[in-house]
Structures are given as C-alpha cells and as structure tokens.
Structure prediction request, 379 residues.
Amino acid sequence: MALTEMIYLDNNSTTPPLDTVIQSQLELLSKNHWGNPSSDHQLGSLARLRIENIKESLATNLDIDSSDAIGFTSGGSEANHKVISHIVSKTKVIAHSSIEHSSVMDGYDKFLSNDEYQIISISVTTEGTIDLAELEKNLIQNNVGGLSIQWANSETGVIQPIAGIIEICSRNEVLLHVDAAQAMGRINLDPQLLEQIDFLTFTAHKIHSLKGLGVICCGKEKSFDTLFPNPHTLNSPAIFALEPSLKLISEPPSEHLKNLRDSFESELKIRHPELIVNGSDAERLPNTTNLSFVGVDGAALVTLLDQHDVICSQLSACLIGRPEPSYVLTSMGIPEDIARSSIRFSFSKLNTEKEVETAVEIISKCYSELLTRTQLIAS
Prediction:
C-alpha cells in the first residue's frame, strides 16, 4: 500500500501539516520573510513584524486581552519546563496529577533530589479525573503553592474539571499551570477560564502545524518577556506556519471528530463486545479513544496494524520504548494486563468516515488473528 493510503489514527502524537502550512513555508523561502527577527535591519524588522501580527491573531483567537502575554519556545516540553522552573522559583511545595504528560513529570522530577522541594502527586478516580474535594484537601494540608494539570489527557482523552480546579487554586492562592496540548484545537476553551489560568501551554504540531514550536500564555496580566526573557533567535518558520492553524483554536471541528470517534467505537464494539473503552464514563476529547483489546498484547497489535497501514499507538509518543504498562491507565486502577492490551486511537479533521470504516475492518481482522494466535500458544 502506498504511503498516502495509510490510515493515520495517531493524531495525539502529532498531526499532519495542513496544505496551507506547507505553502507558508514555500512563501517564507521565496519572499523576504526569512530574515532573523532579532536583527535590526529591514529583513529582521519584516520578520519581527510578522511574528507580532501572528501573536495578535493568536491572542484574538484565544480571546486574550494582550499579545504581550504570549511567547514562543522550541516545543511543548520546553514550554512546560519553563513554566515549571518559574513556579518552583516561587514556591517549594508543588503538585501535579498522577497522570500528567511525561514532560511535566520529568520537569518536576529533577527537583525531587533536593530536600528543599516537596512534590505532591494527586491521584485520580477510576475514570481518570481529579476529585475536587481531594484536590483542595491536598493543597491545603501540604501548603501547596503551584499545580500543573493537563486540560485533557493525551492517552485517554479524559477532560479535567478545569473550572473547579481554577476556583480551588484561586481560593487557595495556588499558581496554576494548565497543559492544553491535547485540548487546543479539539474543544472550545472558555475565554473566561483562560484569563484565570496563570500559565497555559500548548504545542503547534498538535494542531496541524510544525514541530519545534511551543506556546506559553501568561494569564492575569503577566508579560511573557518579563517572566521568560529569551536571548535566542525565534523559530520564525514554525511561528509563520502557526498562522494557518489559528482558526482551529477558535473553531475546533469537535462535531466531526466526535462523529468519527463514536462511529469507530460502536462498530468495533458490535464486532467485539469484550472491548473496554477506558475512561468512557468521563467527559472526553471528541477525537480520542483508548481501547483495551482483552486477551492480546497491545504492542503486538499496534505492530500488526502498522503492517496493514493503520497507524496508531499504545502510549504517549514521549513514552515509547519504556517496557512498563501505561502509568496513566494503572493510575486509574486498571490492572496491568488490561493496560498492556490497550491502544490509543486519535482522529483529526483530515480523517474521513470511509477511513473509519476501513480501519474498523482491518482492526477487527487483526485483533481476531492475534487473539487466535495467543490462545493457541496458551493451550
């Protein structure tokens, strides 16, 4: 099968760039927009002006009062690490949920060996959500000064009760960092909530733009340049490429994504009632499903599907290569054998109903084949 005929269902890992994004790079190379935005001459000024215009457009799409609150980094992980470093400069007691993205976990882990700091892990329910009463209890008892929370989980798509979390953090004077990498461009983000979040981070390559660009939005009238001075040359090509994707932020294709996801789940469940949809009772991103294919090894099924040109993943891309089952799923109380059988499928605006129909047929066939093999070996 040709590469263009692959069915790509790993959009929480990265999304294909839009044609308009690709075109923006051609224009960058062919017109006078390739200058260094840090330079004082006219080419630098032209690049700098375009970057400022894109910041203004991003602020408009997020309904943020000032573009001064917005800044760029080399990626989502760096954005998270910059925010974490700032938070730990303000408080010695920090918390995060037990299912945060690995970049957040790693960002805080480097402080664990220092006795000055206390890192609190907040457990989640069996559906993968924060219990608000338990959260507030932990924050008060431990005198927590900073909290990092994913708006929506990258593996299950489960959405956290952000409004309640904001209220609790505000009431207890806790700096709040929200990682919106998966939520951005998939659900509507309430501007009234955004303005109450101290730091919101996301990355361009999850919204059909380019890798190598992270975004930090500083809420509550903070200035990015004041908090995070950047002496390095900005990645102007990636910033320019963000412009065609901005509409996805203000007008996410949520209904299209949900139709694809729901059709995918229901058709697979008809064929295989034993499948488990992890986090199904919680509010989820419309594009994400995490399925346990009971009785088989999830990694083996991912490999078999790859051979049949259906592209999916078992874990967050940043965790690939680790032998342990997903800590996100085990934190939800899911047994290790079920966690190991689980696979994440994530859709984008570019996926079609026809792709879903074809993918369901291939997945069903591959699962049945692998299940038969597994049962024969066991006998």
In short: The longest strand covers residues 93-97. The mean pLDDT is 93. The radius of gyration is 21 Å.
